Here is the input.
Amino acid sequence: MDNMLKMMERYSSRLEDIVAERTAQLAEEKRKTDALLYRMLPQNVADELKQGQHVQAEAFSSVTIYFSDIVGFTQIASQSTPMEIVEFLNKLYTVFDEVIQAFEVYKVETIGDAYMVVSGVPIPNGSRHVYIMADLALELLQTIIDFTIPHIPDRQLKIRIGLNTGPVVAGVVGTVMPRYCLFGDTVNLASRMESHGLPQKIHMSPFTYAAIEDKSAYIIKERGDLEIKVGHVTRAGPCRASAPLRRTRSRTCTQAC
Here is the structure.
């Protein structure tokens, strides 16, 4: 009887160890899954989806959106194999992803050579978003200067950057690979700022300029009047851009082209 009790105690103890080990493994796998999910969606949105809740679209009164793309990407692609393009873009945007970790921003998406980031969504941050995005844009410009295209090391990579500030609506679209998307003219104008910009310069809309209350923090000059169509409306007005990166005081400063 004593031997049987001892065997049962050993079995029980072993079973407890196995259960504890499996529980730890399950917790670790859950942590990895959550970490991956939080890279794809904002954490608060992902948590609602995990609980089976419907995520309501939300309006944000003021955010700043960043768009950039690669200057001459079509030419680079024509001189490269598909594998080389994938390696190049992965290396570049991995570097970008590392840079934005130090800023209060949310990466919305990458499409081809386009990179989109927003500040003020999904967590509002008052009026800080415009300064956060201006500083991030300058930091990414500096990053580009030091970046080497793996299969074309002699070519200096250049990007165009566009910034715009205004209201947006954000929400989850789809159930299979759901995406957290932004909608509104603010998004469209940010994209136009990028596409109408110049290489290695930050092209900001009048709305972003107006949102920068401390004008002494940056060196900004008017680029001139541009007609830019947003939706069905053509907006004409002074659009500003920044030139190569320069620093002054405690803030990174820009100068217009």
Observations:
- The mean pLDDT is 83.
